[in-house]
Amino acid sequence: MRAYPTFLQLPLRRLTARQGEAWRVGWLSLWRPRPIEWQEFEEPRDPRVDEARRTPEGRILEWFAGGQTAAALVATPSGLAVEIDDLRYGFPDRPRQGLWGVRVRFDETGRAREPAERTRRGLPVPASALLLRIWRDAFS
Fold it and tell me: How far apart (Å, rounded) are the C-alpha atoms in residues 46 and 121?
């Protein structure tokens, strides 16, 4: 299990825990301790996930995030992609998604198209609502 401070609110921590293929993400306030509400999900077992992690961009992300990444298979208009997210930093309503990651697109034969793309996640709600939620989670 690891804990990471949130942006703008150091007392609020995003927690990540991994057991086998399952990830758990939760939030902890250092100002107002309470039971952690874990959100759990599993990594897909698919050879394309392994191939995406072996791309240069996937290897850099794994190194940068210290292995705290989660992958998902995503349908796109041109086929299938694997998105790998850095789980250390993210939004409360999106436990599986980090603020950034990489996307590897695959062709019809299942081969990775290079280069992989960097991804950045936008705000899930207006900034004012997000800041209010983070404030409440940290202090109330």
Answer: 24
Answer yes or no: are the C-beta atoms of 65 and 84 closer than 8 Å: no
Domains held by the chain: number: 1
pLDDT mean over 76-92: 89
- Tell me which residue range forms the domain holding 119: 2-139
Taking the model in full, what pTM does it have?
0.83
User: What is the predicted pLDDT for the residue at 71?
Assistant: 95
CB-facing half-sphere around the CA of 130: CA atoms within 13 A: 15
Q: Which residues lie closer than 8 Å to 5 by C-beta, 6 or more apart?
A: 12, 13
Neighbours of 10 (CB within 10 A): 11
Coil, strand, or helix at residue 34? coil
